[in-house]
Specification:
The protein is an alpha+beta fold and about 400 residues long. The chain contains 14 helices and 10 strands. A 6-stranded antiparallel sheet has the order 5-10-6-7-8-9. The protein is globular, with a radius of gyration of 24 Å.
Amino acid sequence: MRQLFFRLNRLLRQMVLFGSGFIVLGTAQASAMTADDFYHIYYHTPSYSAIVNDCTESASAVKTAASVSGANVKSGFIHLTNNGYSAAQAAGLIGNFQWESSPDLDPTTENGIGAYGIAQWLGDRQTNMRIWTAANGGTDSFDAQIRFVVYELNGDESAAKAKILETDTATDAALAVMQYYERPGNDGSQRDRIKNANDVFDKYSKLAGESSGITNSSYTPAGCPSTSNTSSPDCLNAEGTAKILCEAEKYNPVSYLEDSIAGHQGGEAWHKTCPTIDASCVLDCSGLVSVAVYDAFGNGKSWTTSTFLGDTSNWTEISASQARAGDLVIVEGGSHVEIIDHFQGNTIHTFGAHNSHVPQPQQVGPSSYYTRSNVVHYLRYVGKGAEASV
């Protein structure tokens, strides 16, 4: 797409289409125009639809320009900016999702080959999305799907995330999301994805970092009251002990350290030492679980890997067939704990604090290292607050 505009720029040289007439530019002005300048003029011309009809790309591939209104567009954009993406990068993601699903980001959108949801997940990626969202608010919940986007980009799609984070403009972000995350092939949709992204950026960039207030009117929580000042609003729709997983996931930037200060002083005290979640904060495997339980249910107790099993007032052992998102697996002969995300065959996808011998951000985060044969115990939280969430 970018090459197409460079060719047009060279051909027109001193003229740029605008409205029903022309803007005549001097040779120096035309030569100085960047691709992004040209995109901006192109996409903000009133005669956009007429230009589309003259384009060399297939007219059948052109969708109606997406609306930037709607609660899902706004809350999704803000949610992404609250999870490490710039306003331009968030707009690039949302603009692609509008093309993939619908202008208002309908989470139930399904195409003719079975691709589903706001990002039109297919195959193994759709399977993972369905498993994760079912445990975190519901498969047809927009809230759950936009949170899964963040989760997927932090895990299996981390290479795509790296490319997206390299971009500085909504245009470049839209192209990066298309090429590395959506990977649709040559479907002639570049123009509309870019237009969507720039429209979203123009309308919502000033809202970056505000509270997203993500909700889904079709999903009614089973009752997950916020019992801690540090509980994430995005986790209120998580059902049962899946809320532990949801709360743990916000600690992806934290560093690993096996120490008494790594979450074992109790959740409230730990948060006072770490008011801003970043690499200066430290957690170990059981400390992460302790802090996540505090965030989810307000239980200020802390545990080590060796004390979970004996604390029957807070933890109960379950079978492998009963295990679900938010439950724990004790592995490595009983010396390490991880939080279950989902199962894929014999592989257990987990979230945990791993070790300090790898670079950030891999010290705390998702993992698919363990299999069912590695598990010594499966445990479920049954302590304070759990009865209100089941």
